Structures are given as C-alpha cells and as structure tokens.
Amino acid sequence: MKRDKGLTIKCFSPMKLLVISLILIAAFVAVTVVLTTIALTPGEAAEKAGSKECEEKALNEAKAMIPEAANLKYIKGDLGEAEGAASFNIEDNEGRVLGVISIDRATRQVVFFYDASKKGPSEKINISKESAKQIAESFLESKGVDLGTGNLTLRDAVLENKGRYGSAENGEANFQYLFTVYEMINGVKVSEGSYCSICISPEDGRVISYGIRLKTSHNKEKASSVSVGKEEAIKIAKSEVSKLADVPKTNPYIPDEEIALEYADFGNGVLTPVWYITLHYGEKDVTDMLGVIRSVYMAIDATSGKLLHAE
User: Mean pLDDT in the chain?
Assistant: First the structure.
C-alpha cells in the first residue's frame, strides 16, 4: 500500500537501484557523452570539478572491487540521479558492462555498488552464515560503518534464493547472503535512519553488492516509549476501519509481514513509535489474499493508541 508522504519518508533502497541497474545491464544501454567547450561561471566550474571528483572516486572504488574495470559511463536522466547520487555503468576496456556504481554528489561517498562481472548468487554454499557475517562486518567497517557504537544494528543474514539459472526444471538454484543494517533504538527500527545492505556470495565470500546511507544518529532520550502492543494495535486498527463506509464488515486478513513497528520523526525532534498495519477485506471473511476486494493501510501511534493515518 502507498504510505502518506507526510507520515513516512522512504529510506534509501539499494535494491531499487539494483533492479534498475540490472535492466540497464541486460539491455546493454550505450551512453554517449557529448562534451562541449563553453565559458563556465565560478559556480558552474565548481560543480564541474565536483562532478569530476565524484567520477574519479567512483572509478577508483570500481577498480578496487572489479580488477577489469577501466571506465565509467554516466547513466543519463532520472535513473542516473536517484536521491542525489550520480550513477554509472562500470565498463572494461572493450566496453562490456561489468556492474553499476552510485556516488552521493554532496558527500562524495559511494552509496551503491553492484558487481555483474561474475555470476553472483550461487548454488554452492561453501561459506557459512557466520563466516559471511564476519566478511560483511569487516567490509562495512572499512567503509566507515561503525557497528560497535551508536544505534546501528546488523541484522542476522537471510540466505536468499534468487531463483534458477536455466530452465525451471533443470536450472540451478542460486543463493546469496543478504545482511542489512538499520538504526535501531530500544530494538525498534528508525524510519529514515541510517541504512546499509550487503550481499555476499555463499560460494566464495565475494561482495556481490552493497548500499550505504549513513545519517546522523537520533537521540535515544528523545524516543517516546511504546505503550501499545501489537495485539492492541490490531484491535484499534480494526475498530477504526469499521467506521469506514466503503469497507466490508467482515473479518480481515492481516499478514505478519504487513505489521511493523517503527520510530518516525515528524520534524519536531521527537521519535514517535508507530504501528503500520495493512488489513485486507473481502465480501466474506478471508484468511489469505484470495477474495480480497479492499485493503486498508493504517498507522497507529504506539504511545497513545491514536489513529495517525488511514487509506
């Protein structure tokens, strides 16, 4: 469901860039850069110098991660300028696309990298989860992610099945370890807080991709306490939905994965815990998505139990 922009600000999503990048790589998009010599104002000259610095830093990182990397090709348009980051295709000397890299124009920090030069996910699981975790921790710390202090928490790895190479019947299953890092306070994720992700090959421990967005940590002292539990929040959500005229008066299906407790910063410096719950309704009681004709997204203040938003 679409969330109200005033209520929840989307976190940086490396996976979104990854999907876009894979589409571009599959299509082997050619980017032609036309250089023109013009008189630049001091501001334009500074911007050009900054862009060059960004590209040089991105290329150095690309070469460190993929030895065959030789050049970068800027991805034009909105796809190349997502959330203030300039994105580039990584190419070898023959123009073959090896991956994608994005760098924040303001901080000059690489925020996303994807290696397409080798087969990424693998059917061979030679690396244990614990070994992969050590690789992930060491790599992230080398990029300035401090997991020892502050509010950053590395979540346990998920061994993702990325589908099959080849036919559905005979293709090989392929896996990768996905680690995520969130800003957490009192065990609760902070919306719009720092976020990192890293994918490790279970075959050889290679870093397949990573995304890093570091922000100033929130003050724990300004985090309101959670007074409304999950079951109570669900009862409140059901009660509020019953007041909506266009929603069937039946028992809803509420998937666990669509119930989340997060801290939200509404701009007043105070972190408010919020229950986000999606309820799915049918003409009759439903226990899965079959028969669902209306879905309602709710946001409940986890301190007061007040309804913050419904759509």
Answer: 81
Boundaries of domain holding 101: 9-117
Q: Does residue 76 sit in the same domain as residue 17?
A: yes
pLDDT in tens, 156-210: 788 877 765 444 455 567 889 999 999 999 889 998 888 999 999 999 999 999 9
CATH for 101: 3.10.450
Q: Report how far residue 308's alpha carbon sits from residue 301's, in angstroms, rounded to the nearest whole number.
A: 6
The residue among 302 and 38 whose pLDDT is bigger is: 302
Distance of alpha carbon 176 from alpha carbon 125, whole angstroms = 9
Judged against a pLDDT cut of 50, whether residue 25 lies above it is answered with: no
Distance CA 9, CA 138 (A): 30
What is the number of domains present in the chain?
3
Q: Of 101, 117, 133, which marks where a domain is finished?
A: 117
The alpha-helical segments, DSSP class H, found in 66-122 are none
| 286-290, long-range: CB < 8 A, 24+ apart | 286/250, 286/251, 286/252, 286/253, 287/253, 288/253, 289/253
* Residue of 133, 154, 251 whose CA lies nearest to 202: 133
